[in-house]
């Protein structure tokens, strides 16, 4: 029996990350702190902070001859300290909460991804199906991250920020079954 293993990674803000890059997996019990943001601030940015996060996806397929008979997946939300930064003189707990929500949105899409993967049945097109879901999830994640920043004006709109905080909390609870451990 032959077993093939393929790992695919796509980061929300970056492409081409190395596998030994420092990262932090999303955890319900561990929130971001400013100490987690280790990159130098971007002098050309108007932002006070930047959260680099993304979805890491891997899968294994089990084959018998040429037939795919089973598969397993790993999906995680990661934060990348060496690509995340903040302006020390302008950062505060409110801004940190905004940045945490970016990471929480990434976790939300991890859960949505896991939910869709759970529905798949092993077949000869499973790799293509997983790839299509992966692409669609990352596109939806990017769209939501952009909407979040646009609607909150990067946290300046306090009412919109409160709305998004509540909305993401509720969505995470709906998909609690798929949360990262």
Automatic annotation (TrEMBL):
Pfam families: DUF922 (PF06037). This is DUF922 domain-containing protein. It comes from Winogradskyella luteola.
């Amino acid at each position: 029996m032959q077993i093939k293993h393929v790992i695919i990674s796509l980061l929300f803000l970056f492409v081409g990350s190395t596998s030994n890059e420092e990262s932090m997996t999303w955890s319900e019990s561990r929130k971001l702190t400013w100490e987690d943001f280790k990159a130098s601030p971007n002098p050309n940015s108007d932002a006070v902070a930047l959260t680099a996060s993304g979805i890491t996806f891997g899968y294994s397929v089990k084959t018998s001859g040429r037939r795919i008979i089973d598969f397993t997946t790993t999906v995680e939300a990661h934060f990348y300290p060496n690509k995340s930064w903040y302006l020390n003189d302008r950062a505060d707990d409110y801004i940190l909460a905004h940045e945490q929500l970016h990471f929480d949105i990434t976790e939300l899409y991890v859960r949505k991804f896991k939910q869709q993967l759970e529905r798949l049945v092993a077949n000869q097109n499973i790799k293509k199906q997983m790839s299509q879901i992966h692409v669609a999830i990352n596109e939806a994640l990017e769209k939501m991250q952009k909407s979040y920043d646009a609607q909150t004006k990067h946290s300046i709109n306090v009412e919109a920020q409160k709305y998004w905080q509540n909305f993401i909390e509720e969505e995470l609870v709906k998909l609690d079954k798929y949360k990262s451990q």
